[in-house]
Write a structure and sequence with these properties.
The complex is a heterodimer of chains A (486) and B (55).
Chain A: H1 10-13, H2 27-38, H3 41-51, H4 56-85, H5 89-97, H6 99-135, H7 147-163, H8 167-196, H9 198-203, H10 213-229, H11 232-239, H12 245-256, H13 258-274, H14 279-287, H15 289-321, H16 324-327, H17 330-355, H18 357-382, E1 386-387, H19 389-392, H20 408-424, E2 425-426, E3 431-432, H21 436-439, H22 442-461, H23 470-473, E4 483-484
Antiparallel strand pairs in A: 1-4, 2-3
Helix pairs in contact in A: 2-8, 2-12, 2-15, 3-10, 3-13, 4-10, 4-11, 4-12, 4-13, 4-18, 5-6, 6-7, 6-15, 6-17, 7-15, 7-17, 8-13, 8-14, 8-15, 10-18, 11-15, 12-13, 14-15, 15-17, 18-20, 18-22, 20-22
Chain B: H1 8-22, H2 32-54
Classes of the chains: A mainly alpha (486), B mainly alpha (55).
């Protein structure tokens, strides 16, 4: 991956627009990396959360369709143009929000989400490792030592060391690990079905709720949409490495949709039939000590592979959007900073992590949904898919400077989308409005942000001559330097 | 962990932009058929949910 780069380390250089020789991942590489990201304990928990809302058949529909909707929309809003330009995902956002506006969004989202997700993955890896140590009699079940916390921190340290080595280490690690992860997911699914029986799983009911079936189904679909649009910049940053649009797209789609469904189906079935989606709790009783231990070890690997992807894929966003001071930390330094924040969360808030898993997903999903609406409007309608790569990286002026580096119109549209989401579904308590059952919350939030961005841009931004939208760019001779986004 | 020279990344960015501007442009658009399949899968998923709600 390093190419002929003797100026700065390759991993740091790759946070900038990628050179053709760096975009070398085949379909198999992309599939392995995205599958490695998707298969982890969070997949089981995601299926389990779906099983708290609906039965098995509705759960399958919600997971398959919700995932496909979320990832499909994300492709057209962000992943395809990011792949086209080869720039970091949030750098592409500058064409809609301005450089300073984008940094504001990046700092808010990345600092709120990435250390938290990393901490959750590390905690899951730590819990699984503790189970292995207890089963092997290295520690007693009633030990007072903080074994799970120590193992979580150890898993985080291993992930940091691998993530800091750059994109090639991520690719090679996943090529080796993913076959095991797929076998683990399928084995657990088979074990749950064999133990509980098809008919018991098919007839199992979720806990009683006050909502009717159509509303519960839409709640489950919504949950899966927001979970998947939350891949956001991370999926784009890793997709840039694909050697062709087709292999990058389908490697990503298959990894994040059908492969991601494997642990989710096991989690859904176990949640309905066994009362828990967390495989750490039922793996050894279900498949026996020897196989259970082997599977738990692979589960640790699954969480570590996701953590490496999470750290590696978000580091470019931090380096490119958090300002010069953070940039000087370098690639490994940036990953160390995120890992330190995650370690702090593990140390201070381990018990609260599992409980707040989906509240965090839902809350930030509302922001991601609105952001996607703005990006779709900006790219498909206002800009007609044309952005200038050089100006995306111009922090002090250029075509996308808007007003003082911020496009207030895009931020207002973002707020409109976010408020629309809140009006349809209160994300923390998951309380839906009457219209929610027909239209969901994330899709109207995207639509509201989409419409507000178009209307206000045509009323304010374009007449003011800001943002280099085509309506005011007629006659410019820069067309040859223009890089079509898609 | 080495601390970078303040301008190291900016210099690398300039180098990369120059290489990309000078090099032959590779068409990195998703082929139309693939894009249509992606659109159909996404819309079809929402339609499936609507049908499932009705039953």
């Amino acid at each position: 991956m390093a190419g002929d780069n003797t100026r700065i380390e390759a991993a740091l250089a790759e946070t900038l627009p990628l050179l053709p020789e760096e975009r070398s991942w085949s379909f198999r590489d992309m599939l392995a990396v995205k599958s490695g990201l998707a298969i982890a304990t969070w997949g089981f928990l995601s299926g389990g959360a779906t099983g708290q809302l609906v039965g098995f058949v509705d759960g399958m529909i919600a997971m398959l369709c919700g995932t496909a909707i979320g990832i499909g929309i994300l492709f057209f809003a962000l992943l395809l143009p990011v792949y086209r330009t080869g720039s970091e995902s949030f750098v592409y956002l500058r064409s809609a929000f301005g450089p300073l506006g984008t940094s504001l969004i990046a700092v808010t989202l990345v600092l709120s989400v990435v250390p938290f997700w990393t901490a959750i993955l590390a905690t899951m890896a730590g819990s699984a490792t503790q189970e292995v140590l207890v089963a092997l009699d290295f520690v007693g079940e009633d030990t007072l030592l903080p074994i799970a916390t120590a193992m979580s921190l150890a898993a985080l340290l291993v992930s940091f060391m691998l993530a800091a080595r750059g994109s090639n280490a991520l690719r090679l690690f996943n090529l080796a690990a993913v076959p095991l992860l797929v076998i683990l997911s399928i084995s657990l699914m088979v074990a749950v079905f064999a133990q509980a029986g098809w008919s018991a799983i098919l007839t199992a009911e979720p806990p009683p709720m006050q909502w009717d079936r159509p509303t519960r189904l839409m709640l489950a679909v919504e949950l899966n949409i927001v979970t998947n649009i939350s891949w956001f910049g991370l999926a784009g940053n890793l997709m840039r490495y694909g050697n062709s649009a087709r292999s990058a797209t389908w490697g990503t789609w298959i990894g994040l949709v059908p492969i991601a469904l494997l642990p989710m189906v096991a989690g859904l079935a176990s949640s309905l039939a066994l009362g828990s989606a967390d495989p750490v709790q039922w793996m050894i009783p279900l498949v026996g000590p020897v196989l259970g231990l082997a599977m738990l070890s692979i589960l640790v690997l699954a969480n570590v592979s996701s953590m490496i992807g999470m750290l590696q894929g978000n580091a470019p966003t931090i380096i490119q959007n958090f300002g010069a001071l953070v940039r000087r930390l370098g690639f490994a330094g940036t990953i160390a900073m995120v890992s330190a924040l995650a370690a702090l969360i593990i140390w201070l808030a381990t018990d609260a992590l599992y409980g707040s898993f989906y509240s965090i997903v839902a809350f930030f999903g509302a922001i991601f949904a609105a952001c996607i609406g703005v990006l779709l409007a900006d790219r498909l309608v206002l800009r007609r898919s044309r952005v200038v790569l050089t100006d995306l990286h111009d922090m002090s002026g250029g075509r996308y400077h808007f007003w003082f580096g911020v496009n207030p119109v895009a931020l207002v549209a973002l707020l409109a989308g976010f408020l629309t989401y809140l009006a349809l579904l209160e994300p923390l308590s998951q309380t839906p409005s009457a219209a929610f059952r027909y239209i969901s919350a994330s899709l109207p939030a995207m639509a509201a942000a989409f419409c507000v961005h178009i209307v206000l841009s045509r009323l304010i931004t374009i007449p003011a001559g800001r943002g280099d939208y085509p309506a005011i760019a007629k006659g410019k001779s820069a067309s040859e330097s223009v890089e079509p986004a898609e | 962990m080495n601390t970078l020279r303040p301008n190291a990344i900016d210099e690398e960015l300039e180098r990369r932009l120059a290489i990309l501007a000078a090099g032959e442009s590779t068409d990195r658009r998703l082929p139309l058929l693939d894009a249509l399949i992606l659109v159909a899968t996404t819309i079809g998923s929402f339609v499936t949910v609507a049908i499932a709600q009705a039953f």
